[in-house]
Amino acid sequence: MNEPIARLRTLRSVAVRTPRAGDAAEFYREVWGLTEVESDTGVSWLRGTGEEHHILEVRQAAQNALGKIAFSVGSPREVDEAAKRLAGRGIPLVAEPGRLDQAGHGYGLRFADPEGRLIEISCDVEAVTPQDPGGLPAVPRKLAHVVLNTVDIDAAAEFYTGVLGMRVSDWSEHQMVFLRCNRDHHVIAFNSAAWTSVNHMAYEMPSIDHFMRGIGRLRHHGLTPLWGPGRHGPGNNTFSYFADPAGLVCEYTSEVQQVEEDAWLCRVWRRVPELSDLWGTAGPPSKDVRAHMAGVPDPGRWWEC
Ligand SMILES: [Fe+2]
After folding, report:
1. Where is the VOC domain (predicted)?
2. What is the pLDDT of residues 253-277, one digit of tens each?
3. Span from the CA of 138 to the centroid of ligand 1 (angstroms)
């Protein structure tokens, strides 16, 4: 049996491509609470208060699309081994193992998933000083999860478990699947949809107090949640969804359920209001938030264009 290509440690970052990169980067910097670590023409790298060099890359492009999703592995040897295992599975590399040409560098490789999304695995990325606020500014610590719209949820789940070694934490009927690579209940989820696109990106606040104060800060900037605040059933995490200037959906979350690997049993959640929103404060998602989460069709494989 084919082994997964690597043991993923964490979700590092997400990259988005958008015609409104400047406005989006300004929003994440000035309103959302991230800090710019580096920028270049048409591209900005932003960090949270945690250990990761950057958790978001925003890059100028012709249309809204996913740039890439980056995961960490433990060592260069694991990156090299992953390259061999990908070759063994007939999955071509987009970038061979080597020094990554981006902010924070690191040693990594890149390849595409079945819907043309770019996946990066890396190690030895440059350190930054943790700035965990310990009760002060209500700013995100890390990227909590990325939800992806997929045209084939079973193929997506198969690839991310079989090839990337992720585990299924829960299903929401046959509509969504929640995948983990560490104790966090999910770092990736797939949502069955009419086309491939980014559904939303979630940023973890250190506590529910930071979460609520973050929502308050956005209110002072004139932004009210598209959906939330509430608490999801699968993952038991708090949620509050907003749209950024590019039209992409971003979420503040906190208190994501921690999984004990050997004891966890996957469940299937019915899609009823009392399970989607345990607090009963958010109500069902509106047409508006659903339209933002659907986004525009992402053809993927942007690096081949
Ligand atoms: Fe979410």
Report:
1. 10-124, 142-255
2. 999 999 999 999 999 999 998 888 9
3. 18
**Pair 133, 49: CB distance under 8 Å:** yes
pLDDT at 136: 75
Q: List the Cα angle 57/120/88 in 5-degree steps.
A: 165
Cβ(190)–Cβ(176) below 8 Å: yes
DSSP 3-state of 218:
helix
Tell me how far the alpha carbon of residue 273 lies from the centroid of ligand 1, in angstroms: 16
Residues, CB-to-ion distance under 5 Å, ligand 1? 202, 251
CA–centroid distance, residue 241 to ligand 1 (Å): 8
Q: How far is the CA of 253 from the centre of ligand 1 (A)?
A: 7
| pLDDT attached to residue 299 | 97
* Domains detected in the chain: 10-123 (3.10.180.10), 142-294 (3.10.180.10)
95 Cα: distance to centroid of ligand 1 (angstroms): 29
* Sequence-distant (≥ 6) Cβ neighbours of residue 176 within 8 angstroms: 147, 153, 189, 190, 191, 192, 234
| C-alpha 111 – ligand 1 centre gap (Å) | 25
d(Cα 242, Cα 225) in Å, to the nearest integer? 5
What is the C-alpha separation between 126 and 6, in angstroms, rounded? 21
Rounded distance from Cα 205 to ligand 1 centre (Å): 13
Task: Compute the distance between CA of residue 186 and CA of residue 191 in angstroms, rounded to an integer.
Answer: 13
Q: Note the pLDDT of residue 133.
A: 62
